[in-house]
Amino acid sequence: MNESALSEPILILGASGMLGSSLTPYLLSRGYPIRGHSMSSDAFDQADLVDEAEAAKFMDRIKPSVIINLVGLTDVDRCEINPDDAYRVNVKSVENIAHWIKHQRPNCHLIHISTDQVYDGWPIHRESDVRIVNCYAFSKYAGELAAKGVAATIVRTNFFGLSPNSKRKSLTDWLFNALNQNNSVPVFEDVFFSPISMSSLCEIIELLALKKPVGVFNVGSREGMSKADFAFAFAKALNISSENMRRIKIDEIDFLKAKRPKSMCMDYTYINQKMGIFMPLLQNEIELVARAYL
Ligand SMILES: NC(=O)c1ccc[n+]([C@@H]2O[C@H](COP(=O)([O-])OP(=O)(O)OC[C@H]3O[C@@H](n4cnc5c(N)ncnc54)[C@H](OP(=O)(O)O)[C@@H]3O)[C@@H](O)[C@H]2O)c1
To answer: Are the CB atoms for 162 and 173 separated by under 8 Å?
Structure first.
């Protein structure tokens, strides 16, 4: 922890969301002066960041030294049906944040959370391999371009773990509930990803907030797997029967509105070489997360 990080606030935008509900208590427990923001939760300072004047007034009041932006419209199908909503929340809000930093507080560093959904195609992706297949990915990529207008660390990631937020369920929350209710659980054998646990991601975000590297970085786990293998590994780590799980191909279902990428596994050469940060193994992350459910 450095001195400037202690004396001026770190502002977490979207602190009421799923990742924010892990990151905010984590950084508070580490002794940082955190201010949490939400669109609508009374537990935090509230502001609609899509509104440029409201966003600027809010950030003027906090005067942060670092902004960690977790705000997003993460419902992939809603983004496809309402691209304007995707633009407003995933792009316009970032434009407003970057505009405020540029004109009011140029020394403020932005950590902006993006997604592995900007990738597709075989096998694993370096940061330059962008391939967009849906409106959510398009809006998140456009949000990255807006963040690049200032000194920003852009984190492309995907995460899982026990969500502390009862209104926002993670992939492992959904799997845990389905497995315990003996529901039939369809799992995709042809969709590959390399997500990281929320707890490991929080530690890496802390490091990035201290070191403030400028650029785009993949942050996930090593040796990604299919969503089906992930689900079976999670059930095994929980010691729950996986007999209700069914391996299917994503093209067999017809209720998704947006096309999904089938291959989002990430390469970590850049963050490793530039920051000396090593990503954990996905199998170890699954076992770590499973312990939190037991
Ligand atoms: N969830 C995933 O698996 C995943 C995977 C990869 C990347 N990501 C990225 O990681 C980030 C965090 O994801 P998450 O799952 O934690 O998101 P989330 O649970 O959906 O939370 C979104 C946050 O944004 C706030 N928000 C929404 N619209 C707003 C607006 N107009 N003005 C101000 N705040 C607004 C929400 O406030 P309220 O609580 O008041 O609504 C909430 O705090 C996002 O950028 C997402 O794209 C997520």
So the answer is: yes
